[in-house]
Amino acid sequence: MKMIIAVVQDKDSNRLTEALSENDFKTTKLSTTGGFLREGNTTFMIGCDDGEVDDALDIIKKNCSQREQMVAPISPMGGNADSYIPKPVKVEVGGATVFILPVDSFFQF
Questions:
Q1: What's the rounded Cα separation, in Å, for the pair 24 and 50?
Q2: Does an H or E element contain 6, and which?
Q3: Cα–Cα distances in Å, from 46 out to 5, 91, 105?
Q4: Alpha carbon distance 92, 87 (integer Å)
């Protein structure tokens, strides 16, 4: 048995929830915040048999798209903020960061 932990952007969360449910994957969703952009994410915890991991990864890959977004940079710490002119930069967001962990035992009460 495996535990899949997938961190996805909030914009992809509903689409992924529906796709996983349609394919009979049980999930637990946690609201999380990314450290780089400080935007909302959803972390999915998906328990599945070893043979179902590839199917789950395909569903995640199909429903979590990467896209570009303009982001205003954070002002420098400790520097002269008078000469700092924030210029939006284009960054790639979305997609999914996925961890797969072995599960030694599973209990449901």
A1: 15
A2: strand 2-9
A3: 6, 28, 14
A4: 16
pLDDT in tens, the chain (109 residues): 999 999 998 888 999 999 999 999 999 999 987 765 567 789 999 999 999 999 999 999 999 877 666 666 665 555 555 555 567 776 666 678 999 999 999 888 9
Of 62, 22, 27, the residue nearest 47 (C-alpha) = 27
What single letter denotes the amino acid at residue 56?
A: A
Q: Side chain identity at 17, as an amino acid letter?
A: T
DSSP for 12-41, please give it: HHHHHHHHHHHTT--EEEEEEE-SSS--EE
CA 19 – CA 7 distance, rounded (Å): 16
